[in-house]
Design a protein that fits this description.
With 150 residues, this protein is mainly α. It is built from 7 helices and no strands.
């Protein structure tokens, strides 16, 4: 996909294809969901690290969430371009009409529900993995602090 993205510099896609893929992204909420998952993962890891701090230095969940949310605009811009490249690559063999049909399905009641459930499952899996990863990081930090104090 990286090679494909590099080739896009010299041979950019047609404006119509970009327009259809942006509609598709909007319909399936790929960028929105990916940003949400990334922020949730950051929150989980931050909370695990914060849990190793003395009680008086721990930041409440709402404050951690607010801090992570500050990065949403920059993260969204980055993710949006990455999602576009991924969609250009993934659907490179499809016509604009075929992609448009998929985008229309994504916005339909059935398609909307399908993508909502799918994204919720992905978010849950990513968040649970991030929490576990964060716990491992927190425990490793605690172990390192404990062994350096001994």
């Amino acid at each position: 996909m990286q090679q494909y993205a590099a080739r896009l510099q010299s041979s950019p896609p047609k404006a119509e294809r970009l327009k259809v893929l942006k509609q598709f992204d909007s319909g399936v909420k790929a960028t929105e969901g990916t940003v949400d998952m990334a922020i949730n993962a950051q929150i989980a890891v931050a909370l695990a690290i914060i849990a190793t701090f003395p009680l008086e230095q721990r930041m409440p969940l709402d404050d951690v969430s607010r801090e992570m949310e500050k990065n949403r605009p920059v993260l969204e811009a980055t993710v949006r371009s990455q999602v576009l490249i991924a969609h250009l690559y993934t659907y490179r063999s499809m016509t604009e009409v075929e992609i448009q049909l998929y985008a229309e399905f994504a916005k339909s009641p059935a398609g909307s529900k399908y993508h909502l459930v799918t994204m919720a499952a992905c978010k849950k899996a990513i968040l649970e993995g991030a929490v576990k990863w964060g716990d491992l990081i927190g425990n490793a930090i605690k172990e390192t602090k404990g062994s350096s104090e001994a």
